[in-house]
Design brief:
Serine Threonine Protein Phosphatase 5, Tetratricopeptide repeat; 2 domains; 12 helices; globular
Length: about 270
């Protein structure tokens, strides 16, 4: 079960920070204005680190993420990404420490969620614009294909493009849903944190704890494709094929794409029992 950080994560990776007790009660400096400035400065480094991470430049990403933490030591998303850097290197113990620190830091620093939330909304709108532009291009190309003389190759290309259009429309619907949601008053630890935590625990062969993390990811984000598949994989490995299949069916009921070959294998095994 590989750690993944897909484009869809932008919809669910929200670092949540809202009002907690006074800053002094959570170990911050008393000058709130200075703390806010440090938080904003750390976010700039965090964005650079995230961009490098998404390009697979893990060493460079790590440096930027550590720079972010040097400015604001309780930056949850920096630890969240560092956990994945460590996981990609095979340092599972360091990954576990990082994700646990991400979760505890998240709880302590909710005060700053409003700053992140506004940036997340901007990112979602930008993603929406890009998908809408892609849809217009694909729909135009599909119309041209359908206008050409029929043939197997043309038909296959049209079918593939139609499938891509449907996928982009599904993502667009989810973005619109997120944009309509009000800012939560007391946001929970984000689903992607639980998903990555589950991956780390799975690597440590702590399967029961891993399944609990995947279940929490699904509770928070019923459309988390990888959490469903990984959860089903755990029960598959335990020989609990019906339970594994049930999670795949639950995923499909929520409009989530599942591993078709995996599902077919589960159905075959259940048919032989």
């Amino acid at each position: 079960m590989k750690s993944r950080f897909c484009a869809w994560a932008i919809l669910v990776a929200g670092v949540g920070f809202l009002a907690l007790p006074a800053l002094g009660q959570v170990g911050f400096e008393q000058d709130e204005r200075l703390v806010v400035q440090k938080y904003k400065a750390s976010m700039a480094k965090l964005k650079e680190g995230k961009a490098l991470f998404l390009k697979g430049k893990y060493d460079q990403a790590e440096k930027k993420l550590l720079d972010s933490l040097a400015i604001f030591p309780k930056q949850p998303d920096a630890y969240y990404l560092l956990s994945q850097v460590a996981l990609n290197r095979g340092d599972v113990d360091a990954a576990l420490t990082a994700i646990e620190t991400a979760e505890s830091s998240f709880v302590e620093t909710r005060k700053f969620y409003s700053f992140y939330y506004q940036e997340m909304i901007v990112e979602l709108r930008d993603q929406k614009n890009k998908i809408e532009e892609s849809l217009r291009s694909r729909e135009s190309a599909l119309s041209e294909l359908k206008g050409k003389s029929s043939g197997n190759s043309t038909s296959d290309a049209a079918s593939q493009m139609d499938s891509q259009i449907k996928q982009e429309r599904t993502i667009l619907d989810r973005i619109d849903q997120k944009l309509r949601e009000p800012m939560p008053d007391n946001p929970p630890i984000p689903a992607p944190y639980h998903y990555i935590h589950g991956n780390i625990l799975f690597k440590l062969k702590r399967h029961q704890e891993a399944s609990e993390q995947y279940l929490e990811a699904i509770r928070l984000d019923p459309h988390h494709e990888f959490a469903y598949n990984n959860l089903a994989g755990i029960f598959y490995g335990m020989g609990q094929y019906q339970k594994a299949l049930d999670y795949l069916l639950q995923a499909e009921a929520n409009g989530v794409k599942v591993n078709a070959a995996f599902k077919k294998d589960l159905e075959a095994k259940l048919g032989k029992q």
